[in-house]
């Protein structure tokens, strides 16, 4: 019996050993953007746990692009050696190391969740947030500064420099974060983009910044390195970004050399009404895969081996990304293999704990 979840996935010149990815998750555990022992143990455990791909947390391409002062960063060459340590460990234990490159846009300069998650004033070490338009995320938040064309060029340059550093650090997969109401998503959605220049208004104009960054990232990556883009496939709000827009965007991204669209939703407006439940975002991955003929990743409340298997086996998505379930259980892939009857290698150090087949 073949188990779809444990079949390899080839994207360009790279083969993942299975279809389970660690979804990018901020750890809010950095000082000045540097990685440390927390990241090594956290990511290392998930590599040992058997994930095929680990996409490390939203990693800021500039200090002003951080969600919080505690975010991981990649705006300095000095960030590279610490990241190298992470990629070397993940790779040595069979997980492909990927990185999510990010700019928080108007959601920048907040405190970490366990410090309240509120706006950090400049007097408290915060900084002015930038965005396509001076539209605040919530009514109680300050309006962000509108990026001028020079500011947009800086964002593009920051993503280029970050990509080169990510390659030097040993990442084999780059994911651009264009979801959850951060900078690229803010440009995509008419709810947050009210520009009247070449970066606002029409669909072509709203996707322009993301497409330009995709083009320059693709140019910098070796031909066999996959490029992923995470999108919010809908704003779940009248007048916002829609699933139709996502299909149209995915069709463009495919022509620009994107290999997989990672399909999340929401995050651009606080008041969206979202029908949260098991596998609730999977239909978006399925539709984009079918209508844009591009590989997709499904994410969001996928918590069981049976559901993950079903999603891949029925062609709803090529990859499943798990967030919180992999926080609860770093060994989810090893447990899922056991449950589904797939033969996978356990780390040598743990082989004596491997359940025996009857
Ligand atoms: C997240 N999520 C997230 N998403 C993203 O694109 N970049 C990020 O850095 C983060 N950070 C983050 C931190 C933490 C602690 C959590 C729980 C979540 C969202 C995450 O990747 C995933 O899309 C959602 O959690 C839904 O998947 P699960 O958790 O239901 O499997």
How much is the radius of gyration in Å?
19 Å
Question: Roughly what fraction of the amino acids lie in strands?
Answer: 15-25%
Structural class: alpha/beta
Bin the helical content.
25-40%
Total strands? 12
Task: Please report the number of helical segments.
Answer: 10
CATH class type: Alpha Beta
Order of helices and strands: EEEHEHEEEHEHHEHEHEHEHH
CATH superfamily: Aldolase class I
Largest sheet: 8 strands, parallel, barrel
Give the overall pLDDT as a whole number: 97
Bound ligands, named by name, code or SMILES: ligand FNR
Low-confidence stretches: none
Shape: globular
CATH structural architecture: Alpha-Beta Barrel
Number of domains: 1
CATH topology: TIM Barrel
- First and last CA, distance: 16 Å
Pfam families: Oxidored_FMN (PF00724)
Keywords: Flavoprotein, FMN, NADP, Oxidoreductase
Cofactor: FMN
InterPro entries: Aldolase_TIM (IPR013785), OxRdtase_FMN_N (IPR001155), YqjM-like (IPR044152)
Q: What features would you describe in this structure?
A:
Helices cover 32% and strands 15% of the residues. It starts with 8 loop residues before the first strand and ends in an 18-residue tail after the last helix. It has a single domain, classed as TIM Barrel. It contains ten helices and twelve strands. α3 packs parallel to α5. With 358 residues, it is an alpha/beta fold. It has an eight-stranded parallel barrel with strand order 3-4-5-8-9-10-11-12, surrounded by seven helices. A two-stranded antiparallel sheet has the order 1-2. The chain has a two-stranded parallel ribbon with strand order 6-7. The mean pLDDT is 97. Ligand FNR binds next to β4 and α9.
